From TrEMBL:
Record bears the keyword Transferase: yes
Protein name per its UniProtKB record: Putative glutamine amidotransferase
A cellular component annotation (GO) from this entry: cytosol
Single annotated GO MF: transferase activity
InterPro entries: Class_I_gatase-like, Peptidase_C26, PuuD-like
Keyword terms of this UniProt record: Glutamine amidotransferase, Transferase
Pfam families xrefs: Peptidase_C26
GO terms classed as biological process: polyamine catabolic process
UniProt source species: Brevibacterium linens
Amino acid sequence: MASNDSDPVIAISCYMQRAQWGVWDTEAALIPGDYVRMVAASGGIPVLLPPHGMTPAILDRVDGLLLAGGADVGAEEYGQDPHEATVSHPFRDSSEMMLLAAARQRSLPVLGICRGMQVVNVADGGTLIQHLPESLGHTDYQPAPGVYGEVTVTTEAGSLAREILGEATIAPCYHHQGIDRLGAGLRATGRSPEGLVETIEPDPAVNQTGDPADGGWLFAVQWHPEHDPDDDRVVRALVQAARRHVTGRGTRRAPN
């Protein structure tokens, strides 16, 4: 595993579902290769965490957490009945909520991507718009099955989003849900032209206690930065934060 003078280990949450390869057609633990390639290209060591068999202690062995995209967060997690278009994996919800809480207790850097951003928001008491086409009147954020849309994101001055992305960026997106009410202690620091929340991060006005439970570096985006091999800024920011975390603590240890 990583040490002070080696590349940081980045844990990536992954799917557990049916897949096909070679002569096999069975359940598998998997993640699109884009995530793995970009973490590695950004200087991290990628490891996959399946949504079964995990305990908080696994995060004592890594230096950062990437909550990846995937199925919808279950509506019951934020007190709503599911929309007919909502497709969730409850076992993944519970696993990733646990991993997020454990990472924040340890002040591990956390990056949420697409579903991962929604997990972060719901974990802090926020809610989601369950089907954007009904509220927005279009499907631009998820044009067709397996087809990415494109979103322009404008960032807020003084935010981590501005530091990483500059004033604006264009990125690939693929989602039919979005943030409705923000979770406690979070702020929206990037939005689409029609106001949809595209980046969230801790609100410094709220998270000033120094309590490890407030977490360390946390950033989340609604789009899929891993899908654009020419723009690694978001994933590289996670790896750099993980490297700083390793350097700052000296040696890996469990929280008190």
